[in-house]
Fold each of these.
Amino acid sequence: MTAFETPPFAGASPSEGAAAPLHVAVVMDGNGRWAKQRGLPRSLGHSAGVEALKRTVEAAPRLNIRWLTVFGFSTENWSRPAAEVAELMALPKRYFETDIARLDREGVRVRVIGRREGLSSELVRLVDDAQARTERNDRFHLNIAFNYGGQADITDAVRRFAEDVAAGRCKPQDLDERLFGSLLATSGSPPPDLIVRPSGEQRLSNFLLWEAAYAELVFQDVLWPDYGEQHLREALTQFAARDRRYGAIAADNVLATG
Ligand code: FPP
């Protein structure tokens, strides 16, 4: 059994506080506004967003973060103009072509979570290669959510489970939170301790809906292309001040309630 086959919050105790997040997830938002403020095309906002991603991937291990999950393209982003969708599709392709050898050398395991349907066969090949090449790495885990939606992922998991039941491979009563979590695209990663969203927006936008159950949320007033180590440090400082109770009560309250 791996460490993450346990339910997300099993083993955590209310008194452990929020010392350091093992897993940070980021909604990389604000590329369009960043470009607009400079009178630039949105595509340049997205390429500046890739640079911010690279800075964050470098900074995270220095801050003792072991898992980083970033939202690169949502199942709803297909409704953007075709030219912008094409530009967004080109980003991971370029990123893998230029950066995968270095990521591999640095011990980064890369996983791309999300539906493969709709992606070009070239991008699927690059994704498969990047995952296979880095699958034995364990120093740092980078999950890229691409063509990902929390609702889509939950729907896909339910469909797979229903198919297994229909085929007699398992029974409805086999389903519990642990089994369900293992059917999601994030299976194998611990749940995010902290979800960060820059750009001033305060919503999850269909990101990690199941996994976010006990994540702390931090919203920051910076556009993603300007994001750097200092902003990540500030998010960690806010996280450290949180009181994580996982539905229980703080240890010093137990006596008070008798
Ligand atoms: C949302 O900002 C951002 C996106 C839809 C794309 C985010 C992608 C990246 C930062 C790069 C991904 C790189 C890889 C390698 C996958 P927005 O465009 O909605 O900004 P706005 O709200 O200001 O318009």
Note: Residues 28-33, 46, 49-50, 53, 72, 77, 88, 91-92, 95, 144, 146, 224 surround farnesyl diphosphate (CB under 6 Å).
Amino acid sequence: MNLTEKIIAAHLDEGEMKAGKEISIFIDQTLTQDSTGTMAYLQFEAMNLGRVKTEKSVAYIDHNTLQSGFENADDHAYIQSVALKHGISVSKPGNGICHQVHLERFGKPGKTLVGSDSHTPTGGGIGMLAIGAGGLDVAVAMGGGSLHLNMPKVVKVELKGALSHNTAAKDIILEVLRKLTVKGGVGKVIEYCGDGVKTLTVPERATITNMGAELGATTSVFPSDETTREFLKAQGRESDWVELSADKDAKYDEEIVIDLNKLRPLAACPHSPDAVRSIRELGKIKIDQVCIGSCTNSSYMDMMKVAKILKGKTVNPDVSLTISPGSRQVLAMLAKNGALADMISAGARILECACGPCIGMGQSPKTDAVSLRTFNRNFFARSGTASASVYLVSPETAAFSAVNGYLTDPAECPQLEPVEMPEKFLINDNLILKPEDFKDVEVVRGPNIKPFPKAEPLKNTVTGETLIVLDDNITTDHIMPSNARLLPYRSNIPYLADWCLNPVDPEFSARAKAKNGGFIVAGSNYGQGSSREHAALVPLYLKIKAVIAKSFARIHRDNLINNGILPLEFVDEKDYERISAGDKLEIDNACHQVASKCGKVIVKNITKGYEFETALPLTDRLMANLLDGGVLNNIAKRR
Ligand code: MIC
Ligand code: SF4
């Protein structure tokens, strides 16, 4: 078996391990973060599941840390109290980004983890099967329910040799993105192997599995080997280590080989993580901003490389450099060994250990700026400045460029001395609250916590206008934008609804309200990007009945079904070309069509007088969720 199959087999609850077939797996650990967490816990409470049944569940507060009004602080107080009451540990604001802290303090090789954040696969860096999902699926897992997914295909990525001259782990995942594209990983797990694996540290592996999310992959995974053991030992957790790898004769569905020796520094160009070009070819583009951090590249090792490059230098006068270490452990170690002073002396603006600029929580660049970021997403307008051009690069590229003031190829800069993996990390868990230390917790609900919308059972005639026709690769950042102004309202769906699809069409929300809902039509890979359930809850609030697309991203499709919205796929892509905004569509006998098990739904274009076929492949479970109007209604009905 390959490694993915081994972990799935050890956790299989239901189903057959055949690619594409629905299976369910037992979940050992869960994580939530605050911007999806409020909703996940409101739903968890609505399910009335009592205390969590997992081995470990952690609620992180790391996204909405800018507190310019009472809203974020309200959400923090709600999350802390609801989590402790139900047996969930809480990582307080300032303790770090969920994925970085989870890797350091809780992740275990061979275990399953589901998190309400699309970058949960970071845990694959230590050999976990770590999967991002919508809040409802995480709530179910916290309650002891297994996670349903389609048995993935497994792609073998063989890493050969070793990275050369200032080329980084980020360049490996950018190369995979160049080869596979942002939809190339849908329905697949990316499994790394080969002699190059042992040359990579755990944080480097985690950079690669983290950004596997941008492939649309179910997750990515590395073997657990001696390097993993050393990492866990340095975290004081050697007893959590087990050795894990694929069998020698393991079979894979696809194979890719990457020769690390030949790899050169790369950048993902605006506005997509797969628009990858070599830095040499891009040339010396003048830059205005450099942001170093995010769950992709904020480890101790990354920060030390940056500090070495900045030591004794000054940031270019035209560049604003921000650095956000990934966790308090990283920050404390940098403070202790003097590296932080080197960064500060060079002129870096040190931000707190949180997501920060990655999710538009401050540091939006100036008009028409070029911003280099070590992050994982450069979707249009995500930085908060629609006219900005964001390039995704390694910490090495970012730091050399910040000093020079232009995009700099690190392969042409002096070779950095290697950063040694510490024998012991600085361990201090005093910002992690353990539920066993808190008795009789009262859940705190400030005025920012509003009830969430619930779908109604499917109606037999579904009818409405085509409210918008969208292109390929529409992200959840388009559907439900997130930035410092909107993130405080993650537990207030009516407020967020006014911003639905705003970056593509500022009139969309008003139109949807005026027409009493309707249909969204889109190209391929609709809903790529984050796990935010809000990208389904807000359309639900706006009475969107169905999304008809060429194809869907995995988590978003699940979120639509979980909330009772039909995700229909064009069978003949030419039908996408025939629909125009404003066309009235109708689905007759909708309940019968959905329940018929033929996997097809006929849609009528009333305005243009023709009908077309759409695909809706469903298991019995998903069918019941759609007929009942979402998971919560379905659970309530079964009780
Ligand atoms: C992101 O990187 O887009 C986020 C913010 O972490 C999201 C979660 C969210 O929208 O709250 C994700 O990746 O799932
Ligand atoms: Fe936070 Fe950015 Fe990572 Fe999302 S991608 S979890 S916003 S650091």
Note: The mean pLDDT is 97.
